[in-house]
Model the fold of this input.
Amino acid sequence: MAWSIAAADASGAFDEIFVVAAPGRVSTVEAVVHPLYPRVRIVAGGHTRTASSWAALDATGAEIVALHDAARPFVSPTLFARCVEIARRDGAAAAGLPLADTVRRADEAGASVEELERDGLWQVQTPQAFQRALLEDARTRAGDRAFTDDAAALIAAGSRVRMVPGERRNLKITTSEDLAYARELVAKGLAALPAISGPAARALPPR
Done:
């Protein structure tokens, strides 16, 4: 969380930053975040990713809202700023990478069934940024449905989402192997905490 907050802060793109926490872990997250970033607000999320996004939307009156997975700690300030800029201009933006690998569909037994055309396919990342009106419309149309990411909610509502070239290092830490790789990147100096100013710069421990 600290790394993601630092990148968002260093981008200069935001007037306010929130962390959406699981309802039962708000106090735990506050204890981690507030000594480093006293102005960051902690918001209780919902029982799905989508419900948590709507909680974030309710917490702010901003006209441009960006959402990011803290499980992607190596996001750069530049990527935050780029997504916000494109959302301001085009309505909605999502970071991602065009697929470079061959993609095949397999059956339940694991046997290859067909090779898929990869042209036009993207691996979607965060941050994702949206004009508030589009997010509000997506929430109204979504009802109780849950989506794998916020861009999917907008697409389901009929909005267009502009893909923004993301970054290879903006990896998502999902498994213990991902965590070990992330630690290796930091240990080798291949990933660094974004430069920040103010009390947090002095308080933030190296990791």
